[in-house]
């Protein structure tokens, strides 16, 4: 690697793109072995926020009888107000384009403020039932606050939490136990409500593009829409009831997300779209084979199956290379 770098440096010098003095300065800089701690510091800050909010929850749980509800709610409210006050003080004016805090520490401060706000509202509902039996409001209000904070402070982390809250509000919830027990495919929520939410996210991102409103959020909206729509379609394709509409939805969404991933140059969306489309295509093929009697061709089917998967892998690799080009 070092020899290769020296060859590149010499080539740049010979091409007169840089001077020999600049080449020597590059060598001196490399010898310092300086590296960036930016990602490590961001990870520690996210971890700090997570641990702090988890600690608040543990303190509330363990000391609820000794401290009292009012005292805990008041302490939470004071911390939230302080975090929001500092964030508003340091935040740049709202703009449709991407904006940044002068100090990235405030990005985590506003995330902390929002998570504590969710805790505060959930605590009020659990202890005092301020929304009565309308439990959805306890989810909707933090979601709306999160969407407002995400756009005003230009914070992607809050946006992802808010979209998750929006999904929970309309009833799209999947428990880990259901995933492990393979019960996900029996959930009615992973159906038309999921596809509707995904379509709303897609339409909103398209509308934001037309009015130049936080266009850099498009990747987040598209990613959530892709997973929500695709998983809903695949789950219902495996449910053995009313599968044709979901097959159509999956084919249309696969076409849209492939086009979108190429347009915004998002390889993650492209890869997941190909995978979801491939899984859905295989399910559809097996649906068709179920209607045919191919018992006499079973041996031929077994013989061709490995070839089919090998060709699929080759096609997947070639499509990724083509996307990068």
UniProtKB/TrEMBL annotation:
Keyword RNA-binding tagged: no
Sequence intervals crossing the membrane: 43-61, 67-88, 100-123, 135-153, 158-178, 190-207, 219-240, 246-262, 269-288, 300-317
Keyword hit for Protein transport: no
A Pfam family assignment: DUF2157
InterPro entries listed in its UniProt record: DUF2157
Residues covered by the DUF2157 domain: 12-158
Alphabetized UniProt keyword annotations: Membrane, Transmembrane, Transmembrane helix
This protein's name: DUF2157 domain-containing protein
Organism from which the protein derives: Flavobacterium jumunjinense
Source organism phylogeny: Bacteria, Pseudomonadati, Bacteroidota, Flavobacteriia, Flavobacteriales
